[in-house]
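F.,

This is the one I mentioned.
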């Protein structure tokens, strides 16, 4: 009965709430009738609760009463997921009684950042598979997917997910040996061990662990000796059913100069990608981050940031923090106008090292074409594609408007630019070669 009623109420609320908020905040809710006249709106996360209470709770009450329903109690409750239920249980078998008040996540020998948990990770269509896989691996290390390979662009949450896996496993069983390492650390420890003739200890250390988390494996390219050692470590652990999780900025076979025997092993388990979040997910992430930082941010400002900062989550988070702290320092409320001004200033800072010219130059060099041809109007495929990549880069990196880009590229119409940018966005999702072209140029621009 509550389901049908709730559907009706949501139907009436929808036109009163802006679209993205409806999708992000209200769609995932349900209504529970606890006892006659006692209702709970069940929501997935604390930031939903905050938003629902602040924005729509009185409206919901009224809509119920409009239907002649007597409302004695109406509250918002964060739904317990199976995972938090597990976390709420006392750790009986695994943990030592001495752990006292301190939770494992804060214990000194937990090397993981307590901020990066599965609970604080916002799930959208862009990362659903990677999240589900991380959850499975965290619950049943060595049993679900082994190895788990997560890939995606910069700042999209790969390290967050990996740390969350480590956090979760240690919380459930603090005795597990969980090693989180970057390729740089692994490489330098390996080289050091060679120099100090402590290679046996090195091998012992890495081959006796329960969970091996290796971040940014692409940096293993070109390091043959380390790859060899990594290969043996991988085999030893995998044969013993120890969990291995690897992240990279691209899928295994796209990583240049990585041995075939390694890339093929990375495909043994599950390969999951993380894409850029869409608008609704960006709004949800910003809401969650604001709540995490106990910031009360005007929904209009959130929407503004979500519209204008699209590249990655780190940038989204960074923009929100910049805006909030500057507003605080300047002792001004964080209004839309202030947000617009600050974000513009912030951007011109970020982009100082970049210029249209530099992007044109890099792209031309990458594709082996002349800058003049990119600026020109010839319609050959070999020229149209690099031209559209430049449009995309100017939009993505310099945040230029379509007319601005049209101007910069020799007086092209803004609809041509819009079409070009959208085409590259789509092709990047569909074809990794195109995604890699873009990534390679960005990497060169930032190096
Ligand atoms: P990557 O390793 O892919 O470059 P990170 O894991 O370092 O990216 O993420 C960058 C920042 O964005 C971190 O602060 C992280 O917490 C945050 N972040 C990324 N994705 C999400 C998400 N889906 N939900 C919440 N925070 C996220
Ligand atoms: Mg990372």
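My design for it:
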């Amino acid at each position: 009965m509550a389901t049908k009623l709730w559907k009706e109420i949501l139907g009436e609320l929808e036109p009163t709430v802006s679209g993205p908020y409806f999708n992000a905040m209200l769609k995932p809710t349900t209504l529970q009738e606890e006892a006659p006249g006692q209702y709970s709106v069940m929501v997935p996360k604390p930031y939903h609760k905050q938003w629902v209470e602040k924005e729509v709770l009185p409206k919901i009450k009224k809509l119920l009463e409009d239907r002649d329903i007597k409302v004695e109690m109406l509250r918002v409750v964060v739904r317990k997921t199976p995972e938090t239920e597990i976390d709420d249980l006392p750790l009986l078998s695994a943990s030592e009684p001495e752990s006292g008040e301190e939770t494992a996540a804060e214990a000194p020998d937990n090397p993981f950042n307590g901020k990066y948990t599965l609970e604080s990770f916002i799930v959208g269509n862009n990362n659903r598979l990677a999240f589900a896989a991380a959850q499975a691996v965290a619950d049943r290390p060595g049993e679900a997917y082994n190895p788990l390979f997560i890939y995606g662009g910069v700042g999209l949450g790969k390290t967050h997910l990996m740390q969350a896996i480590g956090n979760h496993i240690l919380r459930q069983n603090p005795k597990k040996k969980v090693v989180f390492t970057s390729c740089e650390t692994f490489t330098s420890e390996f080289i050091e061990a060679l120099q100090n003739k402590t290679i046996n200890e090195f091998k012992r250390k890495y081959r006796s662990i329960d969970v091996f988390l290796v971040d940014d494996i692409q940096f293993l390219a070109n390091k043959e000796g380390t790859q060899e050692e990594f290969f043996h470590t991988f085999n030893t652990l995998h044969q013993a059913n120890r969990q291995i999780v690897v992240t990279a900025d691209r899928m295994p076979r796209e990583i240049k100069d990585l041995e075939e025997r390694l890339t093929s092993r990375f495909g043994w388990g599950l390969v999951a990608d993380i894409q850029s979040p869409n608008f609704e997910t960006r709004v949800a992430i910003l809401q969650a981050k604001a709540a995490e930082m106990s910031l009360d941010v005007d929904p209009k400002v959130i929407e503004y940031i979500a519209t204008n900062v699209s590249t990655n989550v780190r940038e989204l988070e960074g923009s929100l923090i910049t805006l909030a702290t500057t507003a605080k320092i300047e002792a001004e409320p964080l209004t839309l106008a202030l947000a617009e001004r600050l974000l513009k200033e912030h951007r011109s800072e970020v982009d100082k090292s970049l210029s249209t010219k530099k992007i044109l130059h890099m792209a031309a060099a990458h594709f082996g074409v002349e800058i003049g041809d990119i600026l020109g109007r010839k319609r050959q495929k070999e020229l149209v594609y690099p031209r559209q990549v430049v449009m995309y880069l100017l939009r993505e990196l310099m945040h230029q408007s379509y007319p601005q880009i049209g101007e910069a590229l020799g007086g092209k119409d803004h609809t041509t630019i819009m079409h070009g940018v959208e085409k590259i966005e789509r092709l990047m999702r569909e074809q990794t070669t195109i995604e890699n072209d873009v990534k390679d140029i960005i990497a060169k621009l930032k190096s």
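Confidence is low (pLDDT under 50) at residues 82-108.

Talk soon.
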